[in-house]
Amino acid sequence: MKKNLTIFVCLSLFLALVSNARAQGPDGDWVSSISCQNLDPDNAAEIKITFYAEGSGSPSTSYNDTIPAGSSRNYNTGDALMGVPADFSGSVVVSSLKSVVCTVNTRNAGTGTSENPYRIASISGIDELEVASVIYAPQVMKAYYQWNSYLAVQNASDSTVTVQITYKNRAGQDLPAATETASILSRSSEIFYQSSNPGLPSDFIGAAKVTVTNPAEAKIGVVVSFYNAGDDSGTSQFHSYNGLSSGATKLYMPRVVRRFYGYNSGITVQNVSSVETTVTITFNFAGGSYTYHSGAISPNSALVLYLPNVSEINAVDALPIHQRFGNAVAVSDNPQARIVGIINEDNRGNPNDNNGNPIPVERVGQGSTYSAIPAGSETKSLYFPQVMRNVEGIFSGGFYISNVTNSAGVCDIHFDGVPDAKINDVAIGANGSLSYYAPDIPNVPDGFNAGVRVYCTVEFIGIQNFAAAPNTAKLGDSFTQNNGFNK
Predict the structure, then answer these.
(1) Same-domain pairing of 233 and 316
(2) In this predicted model, what pLDDT tens digit does every residue of 343-362 receive, in sequence order?
């Protein structure tokens, strides 16, 4: 039987202490948790979680477990049973003879006050088909309005690899003085902090490309994190996203917002081809459609949009505030060019809706990122490893699915370990969407922190999220979003 290997690039597996390398990133003590879901509805999955410290080609420790058929498990690296060394920073490989998918949350030890805000970000596990010899990072920053970023690069090969990182600014200009190189041992990782790169100017925002230079056929995975200053809860935004290995001529963006209870989206689209292109983005809000046409995007360069500044969708501001969310589709106008993208969403505390709608204090300072979904990757089954309902009396979340076909369909939704919560034969319209918030779903119990499986008669895509609920006094960035797994 083929071995399914899920590779994590765990950017910040920091436990009790702060390492020297860690001092270059966002302040605080950090810890990670891993959520894994067994996709086999009939058989248990034996898994092995192996930890590799940054700069070491030998495992630090490993942990074995069994995930029951069609079920999920959560693993906290601070749990003594996991055996992860204190002050660990590195990468993880999760392996199994069954198909599994996993996500990783990385959070600080903030208490959730304005002076010591909570901060968390989430990524999806990178499986053995997604690692590549070239990875693209559409958005990186250095001292850009107090925002900085870093790249965690993991060697997915069995021998040492050499990688090179090149940068372009938002005008598409190369920055050769900023080029970085490093050798990375097998399964290990290296973190590249843009704030420590003297070749990058201050106020930099642009794109990066990570290339394996030796041996050329070796594979890597990349995770990118970017973060605000974190001086208080209003500047606590902490985002992470997976680097992208290949592009498409069409990208789906299931959720975008503009002046939605203080939340706004940003979209970054990178041209990963050797030819120039322009991009057409169609926005859909409350039944209305709006079209944006970009200028030229040179090879490896990125288009950066902040939705409040996109004049083509100004009419959205006239909608009731609860309708200012929608979706978007980006298309490369040059059929020879391929694009990748990410979607950011954050809350800076100002609804700008002229109606005086208050913003719950728990929402101010939140931020998250997910990856645009390339056309052709949609399937009839989708998996979300971690959905929450009133966990610790604080955290709840849900999921959002979107039919990308011109045909109507029906879906069945399963909640791991709670068969009574199953939702049968729910209709999804042609090019329609469904949104679910766990606290609103009958028979899902408080404390639910597990996986969800969705099966539809049409091809679809989706994302999952969670955050601290209003009136829980958890201030800072508790908001995460990441892609569901189309399998």
Answers:
(1) no
(2) 999 998 887 776 777 889 99
pLDDT tens across 449-470, in order? 999 999 999 999 999 999 999 9
401 lies in the same domain as 370: no
Same domain, 12 and 122: yes
Which of 208, 242, 276 represents a domain boundary (last residue)? 242
Cβ-Cβ contacts under 8 Å for 63 (sequence gap 6 or more): 48, 49, 75, 81, 82, 83
3-state secondary structure the chain: CCCEEEEECCCCCCCCCCCCHHHHCCCCCEEEEEEEEECCCCCCEEEEEEEEECCCCCEEEEEEEEECCCCEEEEECCCHHHCCCCCCCEEEEEEECCCEEEEEEEEECCCCCCCCCEEEEEEECEECCCCECEEEEEEEEECECCEEEEEEEEECCCCCEEEEEEEEECCCCECHHHCEEEEECCCCEEEEEHHHCCCCCCCEEEEEEEEEEECCCCCEEEEEEEECCCCCHHHCCEEEEECECCCECEEEEEEEECCECCEEEEEEEEECCCCCECEEEEEEECCEEEEEECCCECCCCEEEEEHHHCHHHHHHHHCCHHHCEEEEEEEECCCCCCEEEEEEEEECCCCCCCCCCCCCCCCCCCEEEEECEECCCCEEEEEEEEEEECECCCEEEEEEEEECCCCCEEEEEEECCCHHHCEEEEEECCCCEEEEEHHHCCCCCCCEEEEEEEEEEEEEEEEEEEEECCCCCCCEECCEEEECEEC
Q: Could you tell me if 333 and 220 lie in one domain? A: no
Same domain (yes/no): 72, 116: yes
Task: Clarify whether residues 348 and 424 are in a common domain.
Answer: no
CA 482 from centroid of its chain's CA atoms: 4
From 242, 271, 292, give the residue that closes a domain.
242
On the question of pLDDT at 17 being above 80, the answer is: no
The CATH number of whichever domain residue 174 belongs to comes to 2.60.290.11
Do 420 and 454 belong together in one domain?
A: yes
Domain total in the chain: 4
Phi, psi at residue 361, to the nearest 5°? -60, -30
Residue range(s) defining the domain that contains residue 397: 379-486
